[in-house]
Amino acid sequence: MSVDYKSTVFLPRTDFPMKAGLAKKEPEILARWQRMDLYRRLREQSKGREKFVLHDGPPYANGHLHMGHALNKILKDVIVRAHQMLGKDANYVPGWDCHGLPIEWKIEEGYRKRGQDKDSVDPIAFRKECREFAEKWIDVQREEFKRLGVIGDWDHPYTTMAFAAEAQIARELGTFLMNGSLYRGAKPVMWSVVEKTALADAEVEYADHTSTTIWVRFPVHRTTVPALENAAVVIWTTTPWTMPGNRAIAYGDDVTYAVVRVTEVAEGSLAVPGERFAVARDLVEQVCADAGITGHEVAATVSGADLAGTVCHHPWHDRGYDFPVPLLPGDFVTTDQGTGFVHIAPGHGEDDYWLGMAHGIAVPATVDGDGTYFEHVPLFAGQHVFKVAPAVLDAMRDVGALLAHGTLVHSYPHSWRSKAPLIFRNTPQWFISMETNDLRKKALAGIDATRWVPASGRNRIRSMIESRPDWCVSRQRAWGVPMPIFVHRQSGEPLRDQTVLDRIADAFEVEGSDCWFRDDAKARFLGNDHNPEEYDQITDIVEVWFDSGATHTFVLEKRDDLKWPASLYLEGSDQHRGWFHSSLLVSCGTRGRPPYEAVLTHGFILDEKGEDKMSKSKGNVISPKDVWEDMGADILRLWVVSADYSNDLRFGRSILKQVGDSYRRLRNTLRYMLGNLHGFDAAERLPVAEMPELERWVLHRLTELDALARRCIHDFDFHTLFQELHHFCANDLSAFYFDIRKDSLYCDAPDDARRRAARTVLDLLFDHLVRWLAPFICFTADEAWLARHPGDDATVHDRLFPDVPAAWRDDVLAEKWAKVRRLRRAVTGALEQARAAKRIGASLQAHPVVYAPADVVAACEGLDLAALCITSDITLTATEPAPADAFRLEGEAEVAVVVDRADGEKCQRCWKVRPDVGSHAHPGLCDRCDAVVAALPVAAD
């Protein structure tokens, strides 16, 4: 009759549950952090330490969080927490972008639904609605960010619409005004005819668009090339609406052109037999095919350089467009498609503008802000540019200028808010010069002095700065910081008076920038120094990228708990042309260097297949709230650090399931340690020098992980750190160390040195692992810490990463145990094979015979191999040859294993099969278990 010895086994005991229940538990932990004022505690503890400041790139206050927000803010929080635990003062101040079109567009939608005209509303009342809208969403987003576990100064965030921020933005722009960098000019800018404003590059997205294409004859008026007399030059364009703005034609100096004489045409072709026209020689066949020309001959060829001095008529020269159209050399002309000639409309293209400027061609004003032609534009006055293509084609046919037309689906710029296509439009705007005061040179030097992670970011932003035009910083909208500028009516020059600028900024700081729109603003700010009748007040607002680019001036420089420059800027890779870019220019223009020491970028979120970005229209959107209400925010946090965020990240339900599996492995590792540390105290600790080799090997692994953790935190390489920690928990601990030491922890006597060593190492393991995991799974780590260290104020998050003693590192021991583990893997494989063949049940029924090389046998000398392999006995030999049918791992033929059954009976307490079972005072026990039970306060009968 067997005896139940279960009560004598030291089974794990812990209140830390296997089932996490994060969705319910995390809000309780957040409330606890709030009660203990964790943020303030960290600030008090960190006083005097080296500062690490991650400056928050402000999200926009206009809706619930999406997964991109979660990725960004979680990654920031992981970095801040990690540097805090490295012993720095890592303060994080969150912020929000509040001005600009997204909010203004939402408020206008309300007016449109009510049939009201926004322009008829008092601007101060309109701005008040915008401010209230932003305030509402800041409160919503604040709570959602906090729910993700992000710790920061949520009670004192920064916003670009705060009065002090608006004042500082005005001061920063004033600095550019005073040093001569800010000027007013008229250049083509990306323009939204729907939103009626200029857009920055970062506000533009590209999508497929179907355009009407036209091939147009420009009759040659005068030329020095005989073959071109009485011929035409043919251009090709995808923007027929720009034809009223044409003022020149560009050719390539190095391009060879052919003068084509048409001999035969297909039915319906607009070409005329006998006519002659010029196109690039390489494109003759394609143009003829597009125009339905079935027969042609090349009458002559000329080089591009020979075309200098040639002048054409505009196709509508007798219908109001009576001006010369010169041929001009352009280095942007290619023969990839089209005709090799580019029609130049200086008011509607960057290349067009600069080529026209270089040759003294005036920029015509053809298109109003709403996308309609001005009244003075012949033929098309009042028509809309996106609806005018049929009228343009008819007008070209009427004068015999249309050679062919078609359609083309191509990538085209759109507004990322309204999704409407954009145009290039020449408008009076305010620009910051890239050359005045060497802004470009300073920015390039600043880029080279900055650490970019990944390093490719340096080249990306450098190429943008090298080629970027002057910065257009004005917008024709209502919700934003007004440009603090007065222009002299007679001279057209902006007023450069520091006293006036200071007066404006001081008023903004006290009253907010709404005061600029009050009736007395001009007289008030000009004061007695200037006659208000002589000046016009600019009503444009500062573009919002300047707002966010100036945040370092009213956040980093103004707060004593931060520092300038920031240790790190971190955003998505699109911010090379956005926030990183604008911050660089503002700071280099006013302070001579970037506002950051390092810049880190992450990718975008794709669906599970890695094919599409998440979007509502594609039905593949999962919100952060969906995840934290179902699985918990720690699952999202673990997804962020488990992915290689330097590239685009895949995301979806199956990926979340995989992350959940990884999370459970980490949680169970913590739970196992907590359970086996029940009742452990300092008196039980065993000095490292007295520990078995296995425990000292585990401590060696901690030195390796500590070095890795510190390197990965410095490199912002959390993907690698997570993989190593997960591997350590799954392979080194659960599948190896825990598996081996379970018998000792459960069955050895409480004062046994081996058990004391294991419990001492478990205590050290827990202390290190829970701290390393704290920046990743902040809720779970704190829950585990509280289970180990109960107390109302206990938290892992006010701890530092442990200092790992250098003496724990033992490379010789590690090399030895690599051989031991190699042998153990072979034994484990043989046991699995024997179990599958039903020769044994549990591994403790086995007595394997192991044939191994001498160096492996030597490495195992003195070790309890049966305990290491979880068998009841084991035989190891290096002298006898292994049987041919012995088990061998693939690629590990040197170690061979034959599995026999162990001799004896099964111990009723530890389940080992031993010959001595049944020969002791306590029935059914082996000698070890008999001695342990006998020494217990209440021994089993």
UniProtKB/TrEMBL annotation:
One of its GO terms (molecular function) is zinc ion binding. It catalyses: tRNA(Ile) + L-isoleucine + ATP = L-isoleucyl-tRNA(Ile) + AMP + diphosphate. Residues 695-847 form the Methionyl/Valyl/Leucyl/Isoleucyl-tRNA synthetase anticodon-binding domain. ATP binds at K616. InterPro entries: aa-tRNA-synth_I_CS, aa-tRNA-synth_Ia, Anticodon_Ile_BEm, Ile-tRNA-ligase, Ile-tRNA-ligase_type1, Ile-tRNA_ligase, M/V/L/I-tRNA-synth_anticd-bd, Rossmann-like_a/b/a_fold. Keywords: Aminoacyl-tRNA synthetase, ATP-binding, Cytoplasm, Ligase, Metal-binding, Nucleotide-binding, Protein biosynthesis, Zinc. GO terms for biological process: isoleucyl-tRNA aminoacylation. It is an enzyme of class 6 (ligase). GO terms for cellular component: cytosol. Monomer. This is Isoleucine--tRNA ligase. The gene is ileS.
